[in-house]
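Protocol step 4 of 6: structure prediction from sequence.
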Amino acid sequence: MATGESISAAPCVSPFRNLSSAGEEARKQMRSCEGLVDSLLYVIHTCVNTSDYDSKTVENCVCTLRNLSYRLELEVPQARLLGLNELDDLLGKESPSKDSEPSCWGKKKKKKKRTPQEDQWDGVGPIPGLSKSPKGVEMLWHPSVVKPYLTLLAESSNPATLEGSAGSLQNLSAGNWKFAAYIRAAVRKEKGLPILVELLRMDNDRVVSSVATALRNMALDVRNKELIGKYAMRDLVNRLPGGSGPSVLSDETMAAICCALHEVTSKNMENAKALADSGGIEKLVNITKGRGDRQVCCREMRSSLKVVKAAAQVLNTLWQYRDLRSIYKKDGWNQNHFITPVSTLERDRFKSHPSLSTTNQQMSPIIQSVGSTSSSPALLGIRDPRSEYDRSPATYAVLQ
């Protein structure tokens, strides 16, 4: 497909982009449409092969796929049948099994030998349970979809295409089903983490937000978490207020960065130390203390409270590492900097606003009118880890 041809095909793809943002039922109908997913990915592959990274056709295809990748594990029966139970092995959990026998102490599970390939997939070799090439809707979540998204993230200069590609990876890596784990492994295998980290430096709020949340989801993989902590910490910290980033970010994006920092430093003391060494504590404390000391009387301040809460959660996590407290104290920090009491006024205001979740983040489809450059922001919140999914805002425009 030539560049001129791909541009002329843009009006054909645009309706699919808008339809895919019309809600759950629309997404289900489109996923069941024979040949649609295959065709969208074929167009992307063709454009990538011809170095056509910035056309409207590519943008529309990527954004449609991002919408169709939203809440896959909940909305697609095939996805659920592909094995939520198998993820128990990946996460080291035990799940109920029919292979059990009664005993005087209740049911006793029979021991079943499993090969390493059956228990996990680290991005190398054949994928467990898949002996044939994917087709149709299966192509949405198959790890082979990672490579074209990463190519676009590395080569495209179109912010909408970058946001859509990062949003697709964000959606696919969220969730407690095995293919979310496989996607996280595939991104590492394809050396996609450095590509995502580099985009944190971009002067585009929505791209940075999608990338930060994608990195947060990638960090659910232990090996990814180690790599992100080692190579991305300074870039994440630099986008906090007072950093060397190219522009001031929105509250939504600041919250996404704090959520990423929280996941990367959870259950990893080396990453927590890296955050401290990168100057992150001072910036997080400035967010919590600076916001807390100001009068909260205007609408803008209300929205920024979720950033305060997100930053406070990161600080609370850092304080849990007792072995690091001596280092904190040498730098002039004490418990009061890490454990921030919430005033009665703030507590009342938090009750009236959904809080930010650090759980697996997915990007929800939102349609926009012609000429609109931004969508109404959806609240990103902080709830208990592993609670139900939250959505970050997405941009969808009718082709002009």
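Step 5 (inspection) to follow. The mean pLDDT is 77.
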